[in-house]
Amino acid sequence: MASKVLVPLCPGFEEMEAIILIDVLRRGKVEVVSVSKTKEPIIASRNTIHLADKTFSEVKADDFDAMILPGGLNGTKNLLAEGEVHSLLHSFHNSQKHIAAICAAPAVLRKLKIISKEDPYTAFPSTEDLVKGEGGKYTGNRIESHNRVHTSIGPGSAFEFALYILELLEGKSVMETVKQGLQLPHSE
């Protein structure tokens, strides 16, 4: 049975990160549900317009295996302000389900103490720390995983992060099949 993944889309989310993650996982037959506060169109960071599959009130954490937060500076600020996202994340964390965040979005996990103390994480290397004083140890790696929490550095790592998450959820064979179909540049 394929995994189910929840992806919240808040105004200002980084399009490349959200869409690449959703697309790659769906190519791997993962059921991905995007979610937002309302049924209204969501304006992303580059002014593209998107519609979420469901609203927060229509989803339950118990129905999903993982939750992935796309970044974008304004999108992350909106994730930080969204209580329903916090409730879902706490539920996922308490149930020891996979939680992933890319670019600026690991700030949300630090604010909620899902990443704390010396937990390794990565994020977009910005001079603006949205959650100054919160825990975690920044590594600067392209992808970092610790205790079922997975973080990635930014839009340029979206394909590798999506493939990493796909392998975690569905296995190496599924990931390799999807990767081959993407025609990504070969890395040595």
Give the tags.
188 residues; alpha/beta; Rossmann fold; 6 helices; 11 strands; 34% helix; 20% strand
Your description of this structure?
The protein is α/β, with parallel strands linked by helices and 188 residues long. The longest helix has 13 residues, at 15-27. Helix 1 (15-27) runs parallel beside helix 5 and helix 5 (158-170) packs antiparallel against helix 6. The radius of gyration is 15 Å and the shape is globular. The protein is built from six helices and eleven strands. The model has no long low-confidence stretch (mean pLDDT 96). It is 34% helix and 20% strand. The protein has a single domain (4-182), classed as Class I glutamine amidotransferase (GATase) domain (Rossmann fold), CATH 3.40.50. A seven-stranded mixed β-sheet has the order 5-2-1-6-7-11-10, sandwiched between helices.
